[in-house]
Write a structure and sequence with these properties.
Blueprint lengths: L9 H24 L6 H15 L1 H9 L7 H10 L2 H15 L7 H13 L16 H23 L1
Helix pairs in contact: 1-6, 2-4, 2-6
């Protein structure tokens, strides 16, 4: 939202997801246009390794945990592997070593898909690893919504 109020409303969250949806659509369109030129083993590897390293270990730890709590290392793994910065470095290194190929589009497809389709962004240590609304956040959201509704009523009277 801004540098002092680091949260999103439902609307701003949807707008950010929409932006990533455009990135997903462009990446998918380019991928589809060059489907016959895609090397499938690198494409599958590049798409899957992000979650194999960054998500599955935390998911397994979450399901094995009696209270759903997981170590911070799983959040770090998720955030590092789902970072546009990290994946830009990976793609850049791939380009230097192997050269350009259309399979590289699976990286933005994965990242944009996670954000646009599932609403998954970076994970914070303060929330459960697997999405679950925190009671304190639900209350904050309710208070903010009530305040916004009161402001709209005031505007209607003017």
């Amino acid at each position: 939202m801004d540098s002092l109020n680091r949260f999103e409303s439902k609307t701003t969250h949807r707008l950010i997801r929409l932006e990533y949806g455009v990135g997903l659509a462009v990446s998918l369109a380019l991928f589809a246009l060059h489907l016959d030129e895609v090397r499938w083993l690198p494409a599958i590897f590049l798409f899957a390794y992000i979650d194999v390293i960054g998500y599955l270990p935390g998911l397994i730890a979450h399901h094995r945990s009696e209270d759903g709590e997981v170590a911070r290392v799983y959040y770090v793994l998720y955030n590092v592997m789902h970072s546009v910065t990290t994946q830009s470095v990976v793609v850049g290194l791939w380009l230097l070593v192997y050269g350009f190929e259309w399979a590289l589009l699976v990286v933005p497809i994965h990242l944009c898909g996670d954000r646009a389709l599932f609403g998954n962004f970076m994970r914070t240590f303060y929330a459960p690893f697997e999405p679950k609304k925190l009671p304190a956040f639900a209350e904050f959201e309710r208070t903010l919504t009530d305040r916004t509704a009161r402001g709209a009523e005031t505007l209607e009277r003017i």
